[in-house]
Amino acid sequence: MPSHVETLIALECSLHEPQIRCSAERLGARLHEQFREFGRSGAVYNRLSILAQVANADVQPTIWAQDFALETLSDDLALLTYRSAHIDQNGQLHRHTNRSSLWQWTDDGWQMRFHQGTPTEAFEKKTTEIGPHCVNGLT
C-alpha cells in the first residue's frame, strides 16, 4: 500500500481539476462511500450531494494550493492539510482557506473519507518554495 506524501498530494490536487470535478464517475472514484465534508461556507455535504452538484457545475475556479503537510494516523489512514485560494483573472488570490482531508486506503486505493475547508486570513502565494504546490492539479 503506497503511503507517500506525493501520492496523496497528487490525488488532492487532482480534485481541483475541472476534468475530475465535473465528472461524477471520476470524482466518485476518489470519494469514499461514507465521504462527508464540512464546507468553507459551513454547509455539510455527503458523497451523494457532492456528486449531484457535478451535474449542475458551471465554470470551475482556478485553485492554488500550498503548504501541504501529511500526518499518518494508521496504516490505512492519513490526514493531509494545506492552504488554498482561488486565483482571479488578474492572478490575485482570494477566498483563502485552510483545508484538511482524511484519506483512507481501500480495496480501490486511496479515497477521501472526510474534507473540511475553513476561511482564513490572506496569505502570499509561494512560487519559490521548496516543496509541493499545485494549480488545478499541476504540481
| Count of separate structural domains | 1
pLDDT averaged residue by residue? 89
> H/E series, N to C?
HHHEEHEEEEE
CATH fold descriptor: Nuclear Transport Factor 2, Chain: A
- Parts with pLDDT < 50 across at least 5 consecutive residues: none
Major beta sheet, specifics? 7 strands, mixed
CA distance, first residue to last residue: 22 Å
**Strand order, sheet with most strands:** 2-1-6-5-4-3-7
As a whole number of angstroms, the C-alpha radius of gyration is 14 Å
- How many alpha or pi helices? 4
Helix content: 10-25%
Shape: globular
CATH architecture: Roll
> Percent of residues in beta strands?
35-45%
What's the number of extended β-strand segments?
Answer: 7
CATH domain class:
Alpha Beta
Domain DUF4440: 9-112
Protein name: DUF4440 domain-containing protein
What would your notes on this structure say?
This is DUF4440 domain-containing protein. It comes from Chitinivorax tropicus. With about 140 residues, this protein is α+β, with helices and mostly antiparallel strands. It has a single domain, classed as Nuclear Transport Factor 2, Chain: A (Roll), CATH 3.10.450.50. Helices cover about 20% and strands about 45% of the residues. It is globular, with a radius of gyration of 14 Å.
